[in-house]
């Protein structure tokens, strides 16, 4: 298993198979990859991928649960949250609105629609609660903190509703509202799952696009992320089953790093289309790169 603090920098080639395990990418000697299985890759793609990484005996869960994959929900049973530029209205329990701050405190499904000009959704539930936030035509700008901030929960699902277009963004300087150092437009202290079939655009002018300080799982959706630092980051593990990703990041497009445990900070890619571009890079970081990854055979 490849242990990676930043498994992708750039690749200008379409990779038809990318099996991230010890059998296929297992040794690095003097900067050279000794073994790989990249299908039709001709080897030149190595020039554009950052392989200056520590390899360990780390392990990663390569399975995806049904709920992580499906993104389904019963709209008739969900709590409705309607954003009205500077305020919000709520239909149901488990959530409260205080001006432009919406706080979810209980397990459940919450369907959000509308616009917040300068506001935030906070999840502050118990550590055993699973919360699903369905974005259905949501546009949230938060100038001084994360647009969606998961302070506490067991697991939070951010589901992109079918045929929906959603936008999250904010300012270029954050003010911390508690002891956590929030540095992403979506920031989670708990396990985070992003799924569904809609689209999400993130403008991260401060630092990162999507951040999980635990596990981050993405199983579907279309993502366009512009980030002043990293695009998508996780601490313990990042797993991607499917999705389309257009990432314009000043540093890493996709990153996982755990400075406290060398067996964590892993990335597992089972599928998806990745586009990463940024102007004015070094020679080893060319713009407009495309990586297409397919699920490995059993």
Description:
By secondary structure, the protein is an all-beta fold. The chain has 1 helix and 25 strands. The chain has one helix at 66-70; strands spanning 28-29, 32-33, 79-85, 87-91, 95-98, 101-104, 108-116, 120-124, 130-142, 148-152, 155-160, 165-170, 184-188, 191-196, 199-204, 208-212, 215-218, 222-227, 232-234, 237-240, 244-249, 254-256, 266-269, 272-276, 289-293. The strands form 3 sheets. It has a 15-stranded mixed sheet that branches. Strands 5-6-8-10-13-16-19-22 form an 8-stranded mixed sheet, with no helix packed on it. It has a two-stranded antiparallel sheet with strand order 1-2. A hairpin with a 2-residue loop joins strand 5 (95-98) and strand 6. The chain is globular and about 45 Å long. The two termini are 15 Å apart. Residues 1-56 and 279-298 have low confidence and may be disordered.
